[in-house]
Structure to design on (190 residues):
């Protein structure tokens, strides 16, 4: 386990001082979340990398989409469960608990999304994300058609694929660097 004072097992200290716009962003995180997520601290050794990461994350997870914020967080948790990414399971499990108001849903998705009481749309979305995570080369038109039949547009399918792909990438980076979740996540929305 990584030293809790460092966000990862790598010796990559944050830029010091942080550029004013980065410091402002971190201050907003502290104010709104009560912490600066360790994933941001981990990327802050190189402000260009931090900006690329946050730009992609904010676009995928917060921008307008046919997917709700909860649905995008559900994808993050299911992908992270398959990949056994400790950081993302803790952080995004907390987000699912918060957005859904249902601590049990967050736990079910962490352990096995198939036991969760999902509607047909959510189940199709998570089945697709799971298949993309474990066997992306096997995705076929029938898989995309299954999403369309569940009510997703082609733009929604693009968003599902991109959120899934982003978390597959970030899970691997978090695991490879032994990224540690902020302790605050563990008790949120339980």
């Amino acid at each position: 386990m990584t030293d809790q004072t460092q966000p990862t097992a790598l010796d990559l200290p944050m830029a010091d001082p942080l550029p004013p716009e980065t410091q402002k962003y971190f201050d907003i995180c502290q104010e709104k979340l009560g912490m600066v997520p360790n994933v941001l601290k981990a990327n802050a050794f190189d402000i260009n990398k931090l900006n690329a990461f946050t730009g992609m994350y904010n676009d995928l997870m917060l921008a307008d989409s046919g997917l709700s914020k909860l649905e995008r967080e559900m994808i993050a948790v299911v992908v992270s469960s398959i990949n056994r990414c400790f950081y993302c399971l803790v952080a995004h499990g907390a987000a699912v608990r918060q957005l859904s108001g249902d601590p049990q849903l967050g736990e079910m998705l962490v352990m096995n999304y198939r036991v969760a009481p999902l509607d047909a749309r959510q189940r199709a979305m998570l089945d697709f994300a799971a298949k993309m995570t474990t066997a992306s080369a096997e995705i076929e038109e029938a898989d995309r058609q299954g999403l369309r039949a569940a009510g997703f547009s082609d733009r929604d399918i693009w968003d599902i694929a991109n959120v899934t792909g982003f978390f597959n990438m970030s899970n691997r980076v978090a695991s490879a660097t032994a990224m540690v979740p902020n302790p605050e996540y563990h008790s949120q929305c339980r």
Remarks:
- The longest helix spans residues 154-176.
